[in-house]
Amino acid sequence: LSLYSSPARETKYVENPQTQLEEVVSRLRHVMEPYTAWSLCSDFFSEGCEFLQNPPAGFYPRLGVIGFAGIVGLFLARGSRIKKLVYPAGLMGIGASMYYPQQAVSIAKVAGTQLYDWSLQGYIAVESLWKDN
User: Fold this and answer.
1) How far apart are CA 73 and CA 94, in angstroms?
2) Are the C-beta atoms of residues 67 and 95 closer than 8 Å to each other?
3) Cβ–Cβ < 8 Å for 111, 89
4) 10 Å Cβ neighbour count for 41?
5) 0.70 exceeded by the pTM?
6) Cα–Cα dist 132/51, whole Å
7) Which DSSP string do the residues of 16-81 spell out, in sequence order?
8) How far apart (Å, rounded) are the C-alpha atoms in residues 74 and 8?
9) Angle subtended at Cα 122 by Cα 119 and Cα 124, rounded to the nearest 5 degrees
């Protein structure tokens, strides 16, 4: 006999109920599962790694200048949160357009068309509200 014997305890596993956050995350994971499985199977990541291993000439200096423009934008954007979004993005866009002018022109054309369409839709919506009153 042991000097330190203790009575036998019957243990039973009781699972804690899920919290609301755990349920939401679980539902989100189930909804997003087809999309995440598709993205993991794509060759996008392997192509990106291959591109970075064999970059075109002058790629890293250009990337450095564009990144530095973003850091300068953060430095200049003291104060407002809007400035912290607009200045880095604007300076990086200007830096990228210096190195890739053809792509910048095509992006500007698409963005201009989209902005025109959105402004026209907004104008129509405001006009319909104005006429209703």
Assistant:
1) 11
2) no
3) no
4) 8
5) no
6) 56
7) PPPPHHHHHHHHHHHHHHHHHHHHHHSSHHHHHHHHHHSPPTTHHHHHHHHHHHHHHHHHH--S-H
8) 65
9) 110
> At 129, is the secondary structure helix, strand, or coil?
helix
Task: Quote the CA–CA distance of 103 and 99 in Å, as a whole number.
Answer: 9
Using CA atoms, how far apart are residues 98 and 91, in angstroms rounded to an integer? Answer: 11
| Residues 6 or more apart whose Cβ sits within 8 Å of residue 104 | 93, 96, 97
- Rounded to a whole number of angstroms, the distance between the first and last alpha carbons of the chain is 93
Q: Amino acid identity, residue 91?
A: L
Q: Contacts by 124-128 with C-beta closer than 8 Å and gap 24+?
A: none
CA distance 72 to 95: 11
Tell me, what amino acid is at 61?
A: P
pLDDT over 90 for what percent of the chain? 47
Instruction: State both tokens at 112.
Output: 């201009």
Least confident of 66-70, 80-84, 90-94: 80-84
Please report, for residues 72, 86, 111, 114, the alpha-carbon distance to residue 82 in angstroms, rounded to integers and kept in the order given. Answer: 15, 6, 20, 21
